[in-house]
Amino acid sequence: MYLAVALLLALIAGKIVKQVKLPNVTGYIIMGLLAGPYCLKLIPAHAVEAFSIIPEVALGFIAFSIGAEFKLSYLKKVGKAPVVIAITEGLGAVFVVDLILIATGHDVAFSLVLGAIAAATAPAATLMVVKQYKAKGPVTDTLLPVVAIDDAVALMSFGLSVAVAKAITSTEQISLFSTIMKPVVEIVGALLIGAAFGFLFKLLVRFYTGRGNRLAITYAMIFLCLGICDYLGWSSLLACMAMSAILVNSSKESEEVFAQADRVTPPIFMLFFFLSGADLDIRILPTVGVIGILYVVFRVIGKVLGALLGAKISKAPKVVQKYLGYTLIPQAGVAIGLASTAMTVVPEYGKTIRTIILCGTVIYELTGPVITKLALKKAGEIA
């Protein structure tokens, strides 16, 4: 019943926001927020919790879809720009947030951990805006690989920052090497798992030729990636991206597989954004204070400046230099995951960091898709 209500409300929201020329994603999130347990309570908290598998599955499909952009022929065309920009925009956000927090008198260890989370970008909202408006052009071509690589940058910067923060605050002897190596193992492990499943995927679609069978294989492989990575505590997003990247480069059947997946995922994505909205506790916004405002504002400044720097270094087109940074604002799943990790690795700051990240998520998820649409429109990539 709640699933039916959620889908119907999401459909209505899509129609409403179309009238005011806003992205559908924004409508789904706002409708979820209004209908959720913190506003009108049409969808109670226990129902949102019961549907926790939906966001995970949706993120798996989103990562699978983004990985398809890593076609070697396409990567040769765009060159090194996405890698350079992903590094500079991620580290740009980290450095700018670190500097402003330390300059305003906040604890160095706290500033380092919170700043590290600033690197993470949510690919889901960005991808949905690109798909809805069928955006095409150099900014879009660069954007999708950038948000894919972004996760790895966020994990690495978080591992390094936590290691330094622990060294500053702890009286115990801590192995800096093992703390730094942990995210490296996570990234490499997730990529290897994804690559192995990509080759298995290729064999299965060659053996099973029916559309229904291939769709079942797609679901099974994505679920397998998600399940194993969850069990190991590795990044399921990176694994799903690696799997589809191997598939798109090694299988002639890949185009048909991706086309089928695109046709069956819209209801899952609708539910994902609706439930993301329902899960946003808007009551925490007043608790965020000056630190939260600094984080929200200066993370965006860091992303925009970092993307500009990377685009200039890699000699990307002027339009990419000018507008790409504004499409990297959304932040959700990975950032919340890192904030939850912070509660165990730096417990003295954990609660404050989690509150700030949750508040940032509310603001970024509501404004990010709109700003992404505006940036792509200004870049001339949306009709």
**Low-confidence sequence ranges:** none
Q: Determine the fraction of residues in helical runs and give it as a percent range.
A: over 70%
The end-to-end span amounts to 38 Å
Please, how many helices?
18
The tally of beta strands, per DSSP, is: 0
Tell me the β content.
under 5%
Shape: globular
Label the structural class: mainly alpha
Order of helices and strands: HHHHHHHHHHHHHHHHHH
Radius of gyration: 20 Å
Major sheet details: none
Assembly type of the chains comes to single chain
Q: Quote the average pLDDT.
A: 83
Describe the structure.
- The chain is mainly alpha-helical and 383 residues long.
- It is 79% helix and 0% strand.
- The chain contains 18 helices and no strands.
- It has helices at residues 2-19, 24-35, 45-50, 53-67, 72-78, 81-103, 108-117, 123-132, 138-169, 176-207, 211-232, 236-250, 254-264, 266-278, 289-313, 318-323, 333-345, 347-378.
- Helix 6 packs antiparallel against helix 7 (108-117) and helix 6 packs across helix 9.
Quick overview:
This protein has 383 residues and is mostly helical. It has helices spanning 2-19, 24-35, 45-50, 53-67, 72-78, 81-103, 108-117, 123-132, 138-169, 176-207, 211-232, 236-250, 254-264, 266-278, 289-313, 318-323, 333-345, 347-378. Helix 1 (2-19) crosses helix 14 (266-278).
List its salient traits.
18 helices, single chain, 383 residues, mainly alpha, globular
